[in-house]
Design a protein that fits this description.
Chain lengths: ~450, ~240
């Protein structure tokens, strides 16, 4: 055991004196800190914007109260009054932004047709998609493997190439002890850094100390172990350092870029998505067509859905809010199948990603992080469903005013329903991903064990 | 006499090539055995077998009565090794390199003691704190000698140890070997240097194509006779 500590101490001295490794480690540390800053700042920015929405709603209500001091037709309020469905971020989202910066995190809603309002903001900033998120999850998933490769590509080959292995092995120590000390030292550096950054991010992001703390740290440790295993498989082949470096970078490229790109193509072919724009256009055509249809026809269709308003006063004249909102409502009904298909398509695509991510450990780990932070696609779909329910609640609130022709007074604003939604972790995805990650680590270490047992060491 | 280093029918084959043909050899405590031979004669193979770096095809190597192949780590407590080209950790200083290898051998020397061994091996004291990366081959060789001496081994395996040393340093190294021999260390030195062999050796072996063709007591020959005999064997 004493010799193990001696070897560890001299690994530290060697590391300390190697400027290249120091720079690589410092760069990873700085990238990690920037990732934490980027993630938490983005979530802070979203929180500030969400807080501003509340003020905006209040302001809108004050304006309407001033405009209609004695109350007015609820149709006016439904048209001019806007409120917001908000996807409040979980504190963990700062660690893994996932899709939070590409999908809308709030939706401005009025009493009009829902579907076009849901997807009005479905436009993605291509520059953001191109650059991706530089959050902590990105640093851990994509950059930490490079640190591990940098530390381990020449773990044994350097001893041979600089000629120190014969002198080292002429001491009363075996190769397993040397390898163990080298591995332990590198693990201490990498895991120390990864866990330190994770803890800093948790403190900075003010996450609650729940089960996810242990889950996140476990995923980080297992993921780093996977890459250590890959590095050791290559080291066991006993090739030169250049071969090892090229091979390991090739594996990194394969797992982080090539396989995910191939999976993306496969998923796009296997699970083609209906476009939200198509849905919006179809709904707009139905709604606009509502102006030209006989009012009786529109109202009959509407009353078939809401029989409770059948006996209300018949529509008179060229315009009535009840009729206006009825044909907007029918616009939603006309595209209900398309809307369901769209959301089911999103879910099905995500399920396919979850099935196929076993082919790429980095993609699997990214999926776990996003699921843990509530920033993945199912969470967004959950938000859309929550916004839909909220819009239904708004209808249920306003329709009695409209159809009973009750004046909407300033006191009624306080009774209007408010939307509440906070993205939450998907533990089923997390546990499935952890299982796959554990298997990947086990598999790679079985290969390491087999190689080190069966490959003869070449001292020179 | 106490036999420290022994080979019994030691044989090593690489595929179809025989690198060492059934070597029988005994080296006693305090004896310096110099092995002469051309490149590829089997000198380094013999040393590698004693170090346990390679496994014998047949036969066995023993150090202090322990079979090397079965006690690879244990026998290294008794031996020190200086290769032809001593390669050390370039980012560490001479002092740190010596401290590493000494502590792995079980000796926790203080800084003064480490410097003493380095200076005794011929390295200037002021160079001890500099990184090995800036050392010449001769300076590295001296650190290698210091590592071997500081280990207080009962067996010293040397593979062309004076390669790269200047004549003065080579002479100092010869004196050091004689001193260690007087203290009871058994020394096995593979070399091309006939005159150094004659100067320090107790016995001189001549190896050709993996076979130990002759063993001569150094005291019975002068350098010219030894050279003539050696060349004679090499031209057969």
């Amino acid at each position: 055991m004493k010799k193990f500590w001696i070897l560890l101490k001299f690994e530290w001295l060697n590391f300390r004196a190697d400027k290249g490794l120091l720079i690589l480690t410092m760069l990873t540390l700085m990238a990690g800190l920037y990732g934490i800053y980027y993630g938490t700042t983005e979530i802070q920015r979203q929180r500030e914007n969400i807080a501003a929405l509340k003020v905006l709603t209040e302001h809108n209500m004050e304006e309407l109260k001033a405009k209609y001091p004695d109350g007015t037709d609820a149709g006016d309020i439904g048209y001019y009054h806007s409120t917001f469905a908000v996807n409040n971020p979980d504190a963990w989202a700062g660690l893994s932004l996932g899709q939070r910066d590409v999908n809308p995190y709030y939706i401005k809603l009025r009493l009009l047709n829902l579907q076009s309002q849901l997807y009005d903001t479905e436009n993605i900033n291509p520059l953001k998609v191109l650059s991706g998120n530089f959050d902590l999850a990105f640093v851990l998933v994509y950059l930490f493997p490079l640190l591990i490769i940098g530390l381990c590509f020449n773990i044994l080959s350097v001893e041979k190439e600089q000629g120190t292995l014969p002198l080292l092995l002429s001491q009363p120590i075996g190769l397993p002890l040397i390898v163990s000390a080298k591995l332990t030292f590198r693990m201490m550096i990498v895991l120390g850094l990864a866990l330190l950054l994770s803890v800093v991010a948790m403190v900075w992001g003010q996450v609650l100390p729940d089960l996810r703390v242990a889950l996140w740290l476990s995923v980080v440790v297992l993921y780093c172990l996977f890459w250590f295993g890959v590095a050791f498989v290559v080291a066991a082949l006993q090739k030169n350092s250049a071969f090892n470096a090229v091979t390991l970078l090739g594996v990194w490229l394969l797992l982080t870029i090539i396989i995910p790109a191939l999976l993306n193509v496969y998923i796009a072919v296997k699970q083609p998505m209906p476009q939200a724009l198509e849905l919006t256009i179809k709904q707009r055509e139905v709604v606009h067509g509502g102006w030209d249809k006989p009012k009786r026809e529109t109202m009959d269709k509407f009353f078939a859905i809401y029989p409770e308003w059948t006996d209300t006063t018949e529509i008179q004249g060229r315009f009535a809010w009840r009729w206006y909102y009825a044909f907007h409502h029918l616009g939603d009904v006309a595209v209900a199948d398309l809307a369901r298909e769209y959301q089911e398509g999103l879910q099905a695509r995500h399920q396919l990603v979850e099935q196929l991510n076993a082919w790429s450990v980095p993609v699997n780990v990214q999926t776990i992080f996003n699921a843990m932070a509530g920033s993945d696609l199912p969470s967004y779909v959950g938000f859309l469903q929550s916004a839909t329910s909220y819009h239904d609640a708004l209808r249920d609130f306003y329709y009695p005013f409209l159809f009973n022709q009750v004046k909407f007074t300033n006191a009624d604003y306080a009774k209007e329903p408010r939307h509440r939604f906070t993205s939450s972790p998907d533990f089923a995805t997390v546990s499935a991903g952890l299982y796959k990650l554990g298997l990947s680590v086990l598999l790679v270490f079985v290969v390491v064990f087999f190689l080190f047992r069966n490959v003869k060491l070449k001292v020179r | 006499m106490n036999t420290v280093l022994e080979a019994k029918q030691l044989r090593k084959e690489y595929l179809s090539k025989v690198a060492l043909q059934g070597l029988d050899l005994q080296i006693n405590a305090g004896e310096i055995f110099c092995l002469l031979g051309q490149n590829g004669a089997g000198k380094s193979t013999t040393i590698n077998l004693f170090l346990g770096f390679i496994q014998p095809t047949s036969g066995a190597a023993f150090i202090n009565g322990l079979e090397v192949a079965a006690n690879v780590t244990k026998v290294k407590e008794f031996l020190a090794y200086i290769p032809e080209n001593v390669m050390l950790y370039p980012n560490l200083t001479g002092l740190e390199n010596l401290a590493l290898f000494s502590s792995l051998a079980g000796f926790d020397y203080k800084k003064d003691e480490l410097i003493y061994y380095l200076v005794q091996a011929g390295l200037p004291a002021e160079a001890a704190g500099r990184r090995i990366g800036g050392y010449s081959k001769g300076m590295r060789q001296k650190v290698g000698i210091a590592i071997a001496v500081a280990k207080h081994a009962s067996v010293l395996l040397l593979d062309e140890p004076t390669s790269g040393l200047d004549p003065k340093a080579s002479n100092e190294f010869s004196e050091l070997l004689l001193k260690l021999s007087d203290q009871g260390t058994a020394i096995f030195m593979a070399t091309h240097d006939i005159f150094r062999s004659k100067e320090v050796g107790s016995r001189i072996g001549i190896m050709r194509e993996g076979e130990l063709v002759d063993v001569l007591p150094a005291a019975t020959l002068n350098a010219n006779e030894l050279e003539s005999l050696y060349l004679n064997y090499m031209h057969v």
